[in-house]
Design a protein that fits this description.
- It is a single chain.
- The protein has 505 residues and is α/β, with parallel strands linked by helices.
- It has helices spanning 58-75, 86-94, 99-105, 151-165, 181-193, 199-212, 217-230, 240-255, 260-273, 276-289, 294-306, 310-323, 328-340, 344-353, 361-371, 375-382, 392-401, 408-422, 437-449, 453-456, 471-479, 482-489; strands at 8-9, 20-21, 31-32, 35-36, 45-48, 52-53, 82-83, 110-120, 123-132, 137-147, 495-498, 501-504.
- A hairpin with a 2-residue loop joins β11 and β12 (501-504).
- The protein is 52% helix and 11% strand.
- The chain has 3 domains: 8-289, 3-Layer(aba) Sandwich (Rossmann fold); 327-435, Alpha Horseshoe (Serine Threonine Protein Phosphatase 5, Tetratricopeptide repeat); 436-505, no CATH class.
- It is globular and about 75 Å long.
- α9 runs antiparallel to α10 (276-289) and α11 (294-306) runs antiparallel to α12 (310-323).
- The relative contact order is 0.10.
- Strands 5, 6, 7, 8, 9 and 10 form a 6-stranded mixed beta sheet that branches. The protein has a two-stranded antiparallel ribbon with strand order 1-2. It has a two-stranded antiparallel ribbon with strand order 3-4.
- The two termini are 34 Å apart.
């Protein structure tokens, strides 16, 4: 994602809706199919903390948070400046981290913070301060009075002031389609709800915005991303959500061809269809337009790994974590990919630091313990697993059978019970003596088609090289058209052409 483009916004991976973010960040980045170069560590790094809402009104808080992300995105257009992504900025603001802490935890060199007050009649008063980190030395401050409809002017003024103070090239003016201020407020409200338990309401609000303002491309792009995420697990990768998402993404690109979020939505939808060329071409276009979007980069990493490009996927995940160092999603993806390439001790460290934000964390930690042959830790983790999903019983027996092989006959019936309850494969099948790789590969393929590429990555792990030598693997490569894509774009590092198929070590 470089150059001048209209602003857009991005949500979570698997699809998330946030406030609009600017595109065209010039960072030290090389983007090629399946090839990633890490961001230069010496870049000045700015964190834009959420604006403090001076009033007590909910609407003012929504506006303050949304405009903070708009401002961060515009500042990301400054050449030679890295901006910390939204998830980390929100967390840093919630934890009231001091400049010295921000320098250590997110590697920020500068901090921008401020306050927003609504004065009535769409008039805004915003006060901003730029600090040096870790010294907390005030470098610049300014108060602005603007109408909400003139927010682009404010963003341009601030970006020019920050660039001048940091002695960086001034950013080009960004062209942004005009939008009714109430539509913008509704959009920011939907964005704020997207990351929590009210995602369904966020989708409903976005649908209302599209109905009210059918030419507002950002709402369509965000809706497409959220619907594609909501459809994860739909049988065969189909369903009404995917159909609607496809319509919304297509129309968004017709309205604004340089809207990065629309390209990301199109990428995910193409991946779900197994159209690998369109999948990766769209991801790369989105990242050319906005290389600072950590969530899009996480999604790209997962789908790269789905096709076996695990080294490139890990590089993408590490860059996402550099952009969004306090993000749960970025660090979880990095840990999962470290496990995929066999670096289990490193993965364990990141998994331990994540806390308990996701219900899937306990299972990732259990698998990591098994791959490290720490069966005592695996047994201890089972006690924390929920009973409601039907898996705890199988994990209990498998944990014991890893140390006591005589218990394996008790595991298979429990694995079957959990699969009937969930409608998907229990990946513990792969750990059994003499596993049926045909059944395992079919289950992993369903995960791939249904948009769940995390545990599907088991297919590429060093521990399960025997699975890649099974005849079912060759059938899988042809059926999913992975082999066709490899022949056109290049084989993953661990694979090579072998007759009419591929040999993967």
């Amino acid at each position: 994602m470089t150059g001048t483009a209209p602003r857009t916004r991005y949500g979570v991976w698997v699809a998330l809706a946030l406030a609009a973010i600017a595109v065209a960040v010039v960072l030290s980045w090389r983007q090629r199919d399946g090839d990633a170069e890490q961001f230069a560590p010496a870049l000045p790094t700015l964190i834009v903390l959420p604006l403090h809402a001076a009033g007590a009104r909910h609407e003012e808080g929504v506006l303050a948070e949304g405009l903070s992300e708009e401002l961060r995105a515009y500042l990301a257009r400054i050449q030679g400046l890295r901006t910390i992504a939204r998830a980390s900025a929100l967390r840093a603001g919630a934890e009231h981290l001091a400049p010295a802490q921000l320098a250590r935890r997110v590697r920020a060199t500068h901090v921008l913070q401020g306050e927003l007050r609504e004065l009535g009649g769409e008039q805004l008063h915003i006060e901003l301060q730029l600090f040096d980190a870790p010294d907390a030395r005030l470098l610049w401050s300014q108060a602005y009075d603007h109408k909400l409809s003139d927010i682009d002017v404010l963003e341009g003024d601030v970006a020019h002031a920050v660039a001048a103070r940091l002695r960086l090239p001034l950013p080009d003016a960004a062209a942004s389609p005009a939008v009714d201020t109430q539509v913008l407020r509704d959009y920011l409200e939907a964005a704020q709800l997207a990351d929590g338990p009210q995602r369904a309401r966020s989708i409903d609000l976005l649908r209302g915005i599209v109905h009210k303002a059918p030419d507002y491309a950002r709402a369509r792009a965000t809706l497409a991303r959220m619907l594609s995420a909501a459809s994860r697990g739909a049988p065969g990768g189909s369903g009404a959500d995917l159909d609607e998402a496809t319509v919304q993404a297509k129309r968004a690109l017709e309205l604004e061809p340089t809207l990065a979020e629309a390209h990301t939505a199109s990428a995910v939808l193409a991946c779900r269809r197994g159209d690998w060329k369109a999948c990766f071409d769209s991801f790369q276009q989105a990242l050319r337009l906005d290389p600072a979007d950590a969530e899009s980069r996480i999604a790209y990493a997962y789908w790269l790994s789905a096709l076996g490009y695990v080294d490139q996927a890990l590089a993408e995940a590490e860059n996402a974590a550099l952009l969004d160092p306090l993000s749960y999603n970025a660090n979880f993806a990095r840990a999962r990919l470290l496990d995929t390439v066999g670096r289990h001790d490193e993965a364990a460290r990141y998994l331990h630091e994540l806390g308990a934000e996701s219900g899937g964390l306990i299972y990732a930690q259990w698998h990591n313990a098994v791959w490290r042959h720490d069966y005592k830790a695996a047994n201890a983790l089972v006690a924390s697993m929920p009973r409601s999903d039907g898996f705890r019983e199988s994990y209990t027996v498998v944990s014991e059978a890893l140390s006591e092989p005589r218990l394996w006959p008790q595991a298979l019936p429990l694995i079957g019970t959990s699969e009937r309850a969930s409608g998907g494969i229990n990946v513990q099948r792969i750990m059994m003596p003499n596993p049926d790789y045909g059944i395992v590969i079919a289950g992993l393929e369903k995960m791939l088609r249904d948009g769940w590429p995390s545990y599907y990555m088991l297919l590429w792990m060093p521990e399960y090289a025997a699975m890649r030598r099974d005849p079912a693997f060759q059938d899988f490569l042809k059926r999913t058209r992975l082999l066709d894509y490899w022949r056109e774009r290049g084989f993953p590092a661990q694979c090579r052409a072998d007759g009419d198929g591929a040999a993967c070590s």
